[in-house]
């Protein structure tokens, strides 16, 4: 039985607490800045609720494990800073969010001065993680990761026996010192952008083809022994089935949550050409009607050199 | 029991004949321009050997099915033309190679004049198809595809129950008239280029990272519930295991067999932006030391405008 505190009970944090309490006898103390959420999660999962960070820390026995699952950036940094004041040497802070790996390195160095360990956990699997388990990429000191392992085993169990010889019967891996987990997760997301864009371009061609092609049927068939079979292809089949082969009711506006930008920034720092990951991020920018000035300027220049007609904008 | 003639007994054709004779009681007549190969395949598989196209056609009962599995382009066209002289109305020619879909349309029109049906089958799964079954994308007239179905069921069985409701218990799909099969396969390969390049860029970053990352371990872990899990990721794990995390004994020279170029040409015809598929093909061109003149010209221009030092080539 391992004891762990959870800070942040949103969709991801709440699902993780639910998974741990459902599948193990680990003792979870749960806190969220919204007290109603704490009450709900405590009732639903059997986790012990805490009404403040102080209360959460007080309900854990040293050496403590505290898992932070709040939005990356200021909310996570603020929580780390607050916990630094409350925890003691030998305790461990775990950041399970989407932090930038360089932030992890800075936090680990700060906390280490007080003898507190810092473990970064990059999580993939999204909202499906509650059901099938997450894939977790971990960075941090060996001892702290070893103490966290029983929790990781529940959150990220083996889902594919193929890799048991290589990584053991688990769905998490420890890749190096602090920052390494989020580094691997960052690049995972950059690769994910490229994979998504490659499929999307292919199905865009099917949409425009002279044949009357059934995108759902193609995506389903590609799951049958083809070289491009993947979970994303299964999700595509599901999307075409639920939303129609032309996805006509969806907006094309595609957000990004930063990891693609960080991947490309790292590629700049390391002189690694990443044309596909970069083009995938830029395609998302285009999907948000960015590049608008570029397009007006192209139109203007064509008119200048060749007298090509320009179209006026609808409201111009 | 269905009867089929096979023309071309190379790695793919030979494996297909082996799979059909191993897993069904279908009657296969096999021909290759190399008589030794015919003898070997006949001995290994129990297929009946033929010593010429005439002999093959003579050994099949009308209405005949003849599957061509020779290199795309002139060899396939020559075989189709020769068979057109030997077959009769009601017979069906199947092209299981990597033909361009526009060639399929032209052949189908020519053969239709003589009452001969033409079915195009795009095949994915490579050398793993013998073991796990192929994924087959089919175009052609309904009746001809129905006659071919018992053969397709053996070559391309269901490998993923997830899609049974959508496409039935099979690993092949019929997508439209002649050309549709190779069209879907062409785009499949374009997508495949993009997927491969996305993974490759990500692992290139791992190779250059300040962390001492284990590529095999990462690729194996990504197979455990991550969003980027796929068969290509499993193959990457296998490659890193067998050839080392730095792949240092491999040449980077990466060939292409045409489908990527055709995908991009089709994107031009349909005004579909395909930046990732295009960048993936161009990355392969770079891998063959193309772009050399571009690079020399960049070097020359930097020297011209800024006085930046140029490097002489090793032999210049």
Description of the structure:
The structure is a homodimer of 316-residue chains. Chain A has 316 residues and is an alpha/beta fold. In chain A, 53% of the residues lie in helices and 12% in strands. In chain A, strands 3-2-1-4-5-6-7-8 form an 8-stranded mixed beta sheet, with helices on both faces. The termini of chain A are far apart. At the A-B interface, strand 7, strand 8, helix 9, helix 10 and helix 11 of A face strand 7, strand 8, helix 9, helix 10 and helix 11 of B.
Features:
53% helix, eight-stranded mixed β-sheet, 316 residues, globular, homodimer, alpha/beta, 14 helices
Brief summary:
Chain A is of the alpha/beta class and 316 residues long. The first copy, chain A, is 53% helix and 12% strand. Chain A has 14 helices and 8 strands.
The number of E-state strands of chain A comes to 8
The arrangement of helices and strands of chain A along the chain is EHEHEHEHEHEHEHHEHHHHHH
Question: What value does the Rg of chain A take, in angstroms?
Answer: 23 Å
End-to-end C-alpha gap of chain A: 68 Å
Q: For the largest interface in this structure, which chains are involved and how many residues does each contribute?
A: A-B, 87 and 87 residues
Order the strands across the largest sheet of chain A as they lie in space: 3-2-1-4-5-6-7-8
